[in-house]
């Protein structure tokens, strides 16, 4: 394909790319917060996405609860689910191989969740009946969907709240203390169990919100494949430097944009689904050039 | 997994020997003979196919054990290399009609090559994050196999009817002393022969200098580097051998099913291999085989007997009522088994069996394990 540069197409791709990038940032931030507070990589973000999106669908589209109320209820429910999982399973995995065990257990839980969700709601995409629908607003010649504007706006709000809480609230300071030196933090009377529980609750909330946004009509409806986004969102975690919340956000935006530009500009000969593997290609390239990520520290590198 | 090996033996030389005494050698010989002869005595096609698929999973899991168990790198991309092997079999065996020995060796070489090619990217990041790269690999692989039509036939898949003869030995229909055995029986013999070879390869690598270096990097990579071990070379070696074994498993899978399509090699398949490893016993010689006989046999067993379990219905039952299809229940079981074993007995069935034998031996007023059971002891 010869690139005849078209400003409208470019604007459209940028807008959608930013919206997708915002969602990647939210999911990636969930990974990072568990990583930072416990040093463990949990792969369960995809499960939070699925449960969040499907229970919102059930509450709003099936039982007619107002959308905002449904999302709020789901947020609270997911926070409880996160705390429960951490309490019932993750906390029991101790010992020198715990960080491997957590990865294994969370991937096991994720695929078990996926099969339960598929058994309950089936594989057909479902219409969440969200208030945005497929409506567009025209900014010049670029048509941007209402949903994308809402996604970018509410992500900005969620991120702002997150960073303020993380910086100034008591629990936020406790979490940062635990992240920078776990032993010293515990010696100061910060409860590791509290920090772990809260980080799982926050990760769950971030995942569920992203799941709801990814399940809206404009994004293609609620499907069992939603958790793929959580795998793709692992790329910004590494690109951003693993334990840097800001890095995760920047990485998320970069990966979202890269994916959308690939969907718009990759030649047809690259075949089907090229844009969906774009995040992983970004990952491979970043690992070759800068293995510790954009904002990470070199000691993360190995071999 | 670090911290699971115990230092119980007094002599390093004894520890490094392939078998510790003539009893063990006899026991190994008997076990391998049984593994090869049993298929010839079984006539039920169903149980034969359970053994066939368990054997294929065992080969892949034995390979994964080297990477995950001994070198300590967790991989969710093992299915990618199994796919490479399956398409290798399509290319060399089906499209170019090469004989069994040639296509199987070519498949192993292609698997090793893919491992060598990807090691520099995959091993650029520490510990747990390696798993992220392998997830990327899994998704990239599915994209690649869906689009590389000339080799893979695209999303629709491709036939894979491959030659199965070595000289006069035809593993499509073994002929022993005038009696011709069925295709399933013959394939079962071939596959369990390969399981034995894979066990021997991994056992030999793990007791060699390279294998001990792998375990050293797993248990403490800083200490390993200090004594002069190159992390990259050691981990890359494990990655390459494990990829080659995965490819062999993939080649055999293609030979059995005679059809290959990209969707077979999804994340669930990689989860199955990890589940086999944990359920059987990670970093133990026979763990992957034990795990494969339990977890690797699940898809076939559930397909046949799953209907008796509450809330499980057949894959084609779309009628009312909540329930998991057998395919969904299979994946669900992989996940749940993984979680249960990690919570309750992370060292797997190998240790559970060993405990069982110990108790049995005590009841028989014996203080030492019988030689055959000593094989199952963890090192």
Short synopsis of the structure:
The complex is a heterodimer of chains A (303) and B (379). With 303 residues, chain A is an all-alpha fold.
Supply the CATH class of chain A.
Mainly Alpha
Biggest sheet overview of chain B: 2 strands, antiparallel
Largest interface: A-B, 53 and 55 residues
Tally of domains of chain A: 1
Which structural category do the helix and sheet elements of chain B fall into? mainly alpha
Mean pLDDT of chain A: 87
Total DSSP helices of chain B: 17
Describe the structure.
The complex is a heterodimer of chains A (303) and B (379). Chain A is an all-alpha fold and 303 residues long. Chain A contains 12 helices and 2 strands. Chain A has a single domain (7-300), classed as ABC transporter involved in vitamin B12 uptake, BtuC. A two-stranded antiparallel sheet of chain A has the order 1-2. In chain A, a hairpin with a 2-residue loop joins strand 1 and strand 2. Chain B has 379 residues and is mostly helical. Chain B has one domain. In chain B, 67% of the residues lie in helices and 4% in strands. Chain B is built from 17 helices and 8 strands. In chain B, strands 1-6 form a two-stranded antiparallel ribbon. A two-stranded antiparallel sheet of chain B has the order 2-3. Chain B has a two-stranded antiparallel ribbon with strand order 4-5. The longest helix of chain B is centred in the middle third of the chain and has 27 residues, at 231-257. The interface between A and B is large, with 53 and 55 residues.
